[in-house]
Amino acid sequence: MTAKSTIGFIGLGIMGRHMAGHILAAGYPLQVYNRTAAKAAPLVEQGAVLAENPGALAAACDVVITIVGYPADVEEVYFGDNGIIANARPGTVLVDMTTSSPELAQRIAAAAAGKGLAALDAPVSGGDIGARDGKLAIMVGGAAETFDSVLPVFETMGARIALMGPAGAGQHTKMANQIAIASTMLAVSESLSYAEAAGLDPAKVIEVVGTGAAASFLLNGLGPKIAARDYAPGFFVHHFVKDMSIALSEAERMGLDLPGLALARSLYQKLVDGGYGEEGTQALFRVYCGLTATGEAA
Ligand code: NAP
C-alpha cells in the first residue's frame, strides 16, 4: 500500500461518514458506497467517487473498508451478489470495522485467503465523537504484515490502534469492550436515578463524582445527556442489543456465565420493544423512569 493507493469505503452512517472523511482529508483517492446513496453526497462533493455497488468498488480499490450495521449487512456486502469477495483483485486488503461476530470475521478471512486477498477485522470504540475527531480505538484481528500495511490508513481515523491476535481477535476485543459498557450503563443510570430521587441536582452530582473514583467516559459523557433527557443517538440502542447478543452467545459457547451482561441486554430489549431502538444508549434511563415517552418519572 502506498500514499497513492485507492481506498474504498462502504457504510456512511454515523461512524463511517466521519471515518471516510478523514481518509479523504489525508489525501488518499477514495471510492464510497452506501445503501442510501444520498449519504455519500458530502464526500462526493469533497472529491470521493461514488461506486455503483460493493463489487464495483472492490474491483477498483487496493484497500476496502466496511462499517455497516449488522452481521447480516456484512454478509451481504462481502458474499452477496455484486459483493466484495467475488470482485476484489488479488492482493486487495479487506477491512471490516463493523461490530460483528468473531465467527463471521474468521469466515471472511478464510474466503479472502482462498482468493488471494487479505482480511482484517477492525471494530472501533469511541463513538460518534471519536469518529468525528479521528480519535477512535481500533482493535484488530488478522496477520501482522497485513496490519502493518494498512496502519497508515488506520492512523487517519484512530488514536489507539492495536493488533490483538488472529482473525476474530478484533471482534472478541470489541465484545470485551461492550460487556464493560453494558454494566457501566446500568450503574450510571442507577446512580443518577438515585441522585434525583434524593433531591440532588444530577448535573452537580456528575460534576463532583465525575472527578472521583466513579469517573468514566460514560458517566462524564452520557450522564449530562441523561440529566438533560437528551436521548438523541450517538450509538443506537438497537446496535447495542445486537452487540450484547453476540457477546452472550460467544460467552455461552465458552461456558461463561455473565449475569450483568444478561441483565443489561434484557433491560435494553425493553427499550427496543417500547419503540426506543433508534435512540442513543443513554436512553436506558427511561427504564428507570417507567419507560414514559418524555423520559420523566411516571
Ligand atoms: P448507522 O448510522 O446505521 O450506519 C450504518 C451504515 O451502513 C448506514 O449508512 C447504512 O445504510 C449502511 N449499510 C447497512 N447495510 C448496508 C449494505 N448492505 N450495503 C451498503 N450500506 C449498508 O450505524 P453507525 O452508528 O455508523 O454504526 C455502524 C457500525 O459500527 C455498527 O455495527 C455499530 O454497532 C458500530 N459502532 C457504532 C458506534 C457508534 O457510537 N455509533 C461506535 C462503535 C461501533 P443506510 O444509510 O441505508 O441505513
UniProtKB/TrEMBL annotation:
Residue span, 6-phosphogluconate dehydrogenase NADP-binding domain: 6-165
Record-linked InterPro entries: 3-OH-isobutyrate_DH-rel_CS, 6-PGluconate_DH-like_C_sf, 6PGD_dom2, 6PGDH_NADP-bd, HIBADH-like_NADP-bd, HIBADH-related, NAD(P)-bd_dom_sf
Class in the EC hierarchy, top level: oxidoreductase
EC id: 1.1.-.-
Keyword NAD in record: yes
Keywords carried by this UniProt record: NAD, Oxidoreductase
Pfam families noted in UniProt: NAD_binding_11 (PF14833), NAD_binding_2 (PF03446)
MF terms in GO: oxidoreductase activity
Span of domain 3-hydroxyisobutyrate dehydrogenase-like NAD-binding: 168-288
UniProt superkingdom: Bacteria
Similarity field: Belongs to the HIBADH-related family.
Protein name, UniProt field: NAD(P)-dependent oxidoreductase
